[in-house]
Design goal:
With about 170 residues, the chain is of the alpha+beta class. A five-stranded mixed barrel has the order 2-3-4-7-6. Strands 5-9 form a two-stranded antiparallel sheet.
Length: about 170
């Protein structure tokens, strides 16, 4: 990645993490409006405050893994996230970048953790790492017990395995 790309991404993270306007912060978290939902774990947010000309920022929800758009339950997961947050004011906290240099973060709608909601409703898996069941394992277990969403299908394949078996979906987003 070019140095200018790192500089731009660093500026974006700084804007999200360090907004000075009290109108754009709530309890130390940035306040933004969701402008677009790409899939069940990726959305675009426009930070509030400043001069109002901030460009939307692509944010990958940390701690969950939703089905790919071309995977069974992928369209339903995208629709669920859209219905929940699109064009709404949210609080967010960025947590760095993933292996693909996407900004990672957590999003809250009111007092509700959007990622926890996605998993509990059966629209995403808790993101597993090594031997950890992930940060939303209790919500996933509850969704599995109640056979919610994608967990109604005993043969549902985690996105990581789906990508390994099938490659990435064709992208137009």
């Amino acid at each position: 990645m070019k140095q200018s790309s790192y500089t731009l991404l660093g500026a974006v993270v700084s804007v999200l993490m360090g907004m000075s306007s009290s109108a754009s912060q709530a309890n130390g978290l940035a306040v933004a409006v969701v402008t677009r939902v790409s899939d069940g774990d990726t959305l675009w947010v426009r930070p509030l405050g400043g001069d109002g000309k901030q460009r939307p920022i692509k944010l990958r929800l940390q701690g969950i893994d939703a089905p790919e758009r071309c995977q069974p339950w992928g369209p339903q997961a995208t629709l669920a996230l859209s219905s929940k947050v699109l064009h709404k004011e949210v609080r967010l906290q960025t947590r760095g970048r993933d292996d693909h240099e996407r900004v990672l973060g957590n999003v809250w709608l009111g007092d509700e953790d959007v990622s926890a909601w996605m998993v509990e409703q059966g629209h995403a898996w808790s993101y597993r790492w090594r031997r950890s069941a992930g940060p939303y394992a209790p919500q996933e277990e509850k969704a599995r017990q109640h056979k919610r969403g994608l967990f109604a299908d005993a043969q549902a394949v985690e996105p990581r395995q789906f990508r390994k078996n099938n490659g990435p979906c064709a992208s137009n987003l």
